[in-house]
Structures are given as C-alpha cells and as structure tokens.
Specification:
7-stranded antiparallel sheet; about 50% strand
Length: about 100
Amino acid sequence: MSWEFPSELTYWRGPSPYHFIPVPEDVSTGLRGVSSLVSYGWGVIPVSVRIEETVFTTSLFPKDGGYLIPVKDTVRRGLGLSLGDSVTVELIVGA
C-alpha cells in the first residue's frame, strides 16, 4: 500500500535531531484503516519513504488523529531541506 503527496517540513521540539512531515488527513484516514494490521505497538506504523532520490525507512508517529513522518537531520541535510520547505513524499506501508 502506498501514497504520494505534497507536504511541508516542520519541527517538533524534543531531545532528538528530527524534523517531521505531516501526513495529510486523507492519507491518515487510510493509514488508520490498516494500522491494526501493520503496527508493532503504540500505533506506530513501519514505512519506507522516498523524497526525491533518497529512500529511508522509519515509523510514522501518531499525533492528534493524524501521523507524522520523522526525518533524521542527516537525511534532511543530505536533501538540503530547511524548516518550511515543501516536499513530495512517496510513502510505502509495511516496509
């Protein structure tokens, strides 16, 4: 199961070196439908993410009824992304 969508790089204050990409509501609705089949605890969902030519694996974080894609700073810097930048994401569930 996969989706492609535009979103914007955001920051959430915390101890880890991450920025986040919010998953749009329509995609989050689809993810909630499969969450119980693919989640390995706490509602997180393992995914593979492609931004431009960069592919990485991570787990979606549930937040306020939607999901956030965590992006490590090493990935963000490698893509030359800054806070507020628009990105197109390909999201593959269960990767």
